[in-house]
Each structure stands twice: as C-alpha cells, then as structure tokens.
Amino acid sequence: MSEKSSLQIKLRRKGGVGPNSNWHWEVQDADGKVLKTGSAVGEEHKAFATARIAKEKLEAGK
C-alpha cells in the first residue's frame, strides 16, 4: 500500500485561453503553508503535470 500524501496542489489560471493560458500553481502542506510555487503556460493538464513533479520531488525529500 502507498502512504497518503499530506501535500496538495492548488492550480489557478491567471490569464489567457487555450494554449496561451497562464497558470499559477502552489504545493501546500496539510496546514495550507505554501512549500513551492511556480507557473506554466499552456493547457491545464500540462500545468498540473508540472506541479505534480514538484510535489513528488518534495515528497521524496522528506
């Protein structure tokens, strides 16, 4: 069984549409403290994948 992560991803669109969308993401701990932030341009699933990679790196560093 895998352990449940206490980290969560928050994703917000800051502007643009379609492939020109500008996304801002945050990785937060269970208390809502921001551990890492970033941005990505493009489709939502690409921005989420970028944030997920950052989250996995934070989890591996624990």
- The shape is elongated
Tally of separate helices = 1
The largest sheet is: 3 strands, antiparallel
Supply Rg: 12 Å
* Strand line-up of the largest beta sheet: 1-2-3
Low-pLDDT stretches are none
Number of domains: 1
The tally of beta strands, per DSSP, is: 3
Provide key terms for this protein.
single chain; 62 residues; alpha+beta; three-stranded antiparallel beta sheet; 3 strands
Fold and architecture overview:
- With 62 residues, this protein is α+β, with helices and mostly antiparallel strands.
- It has one domain (8-60).
- It contains one helix and three strands.
- It has one helix spanning 44-60, and strands spanning 8-15, 22-28, 34-41.
- The protein has a three-stranded antiparallel sheet, covered by helices on one side.
- The longest helix is centred in the last third of the chain and has 17 residues, at 44-60.
- It is elongated and about 35 Å long.
- The protein starts with 7 loop residues before the first strand and ends with a helix.
- The model has no long low-confidence stretch (mean pLDDT 91).
